[in-house]
Amino acid sequence: xxxxxxxxxxxxxxxxxxxxxxxxxxxxxxxxxxxxxxxxxxxxxxxxxxxxxxxxxxxxxxxxxxxxxxxxxxxxxxxxxxxxxxxxxxxxxxxxxxxxxxxxxxxxxxxxxxxxxxxxxxxxxxxxxxxxxxxxxxxxxxxxxxxxxxxxxxxxxxxxxxxxxxxxxxxxxxxxxxxxxxxxxxxxxxxxxxxxxxxxxxxxxxxxxxxxxxxxxxxxxxxxxxxxxxxx
Length: 232
Ligand SMILES: NC(=O)c1ccc[n+]([C@@H]2O[C@H](COP(=O)([O-])OP(=O)(O)OC[C@H]3O[C@@H](n4cnc5c(N)ncnc54)[C@H](OP(=O)(O)O)[C@@H]3O)[C@@H](O)[C@H]2O)c1
Prior knowledge:
- 44% of the residues lie in helices and 15% in strands.
- By secondary structure, it is of the alpha/beta class.
- The longest helix has 29 residues, at 99-127.
- The site of NADP nicotinamide-adenine-dinucleotide phosphate has 30 residues, from α1 and β2.
- NADP nicotinamide-adenine-dinucleotide phosphate binds at residues 8-15, 32-35, 38, 58-60, 85-88, 108, 134, 136, 178, 180-181, 183-185, 201.
């Protein structure tokens, strides 16, 4: 049976590249994101027909997360993998953020993955499936006043806490922590440094697929990957 995978934040960047990689491997894929137009553009470009479903909504909204899971199950009857990928970083440091912007980033990057885990665990236990949480090198390193980094430390903790919770239920949990990746993420942050080494979204997608494609009984728990030349 074709595996069914739900990816949050799948309209651009790492999520979109992961969707394409998994579609090529025969998965049925549901992707979410807030901007419905960008989701539709991705769907049209992917050309996967009814093997790709797009579900607009905000990953920090529990009713959207529940609805995304429900729609995926209604369409395909099972859930094998979830990728908690949706996330963003505010530009600047925490003394420069508005409280409202801080709330949005914390809810997206921390509550979002936790809601996804909460909502999908019963189905993943049934399929003996896998969870991938996209963290960051910023989730293993501190830098001055970096609230985004705080959210990614939390995402890393969520991965290990979830693994401890479900490993005896046959569910695998992998944290993928990329360094700098060339995606629209950097537009939101005000652009990446010009000469900084980067990886491609496809390279991160390949690492996610590697974790998903492990044989039954093997659980890759943590992948940290940087472009060669990235020091921090
Ligand atoms: N690029 C890097 O260097 C890098 C490095 C380490 C980790 N990461 C992490 O990788 C993940 C993917 O980022 P990316 O680089 O691929 O950036 P991206 O191209 O900006 O993709 C982010 C995706 O998440 C969606 N998204 C953002 N906030 C959302 C929300 N509240 N609800 C639903 N969807 C939301 C975006 O669509 P909408 O805006 O339409 O919602 C988009 O589809 C993030 O968790 C990021 O923190 C990125």
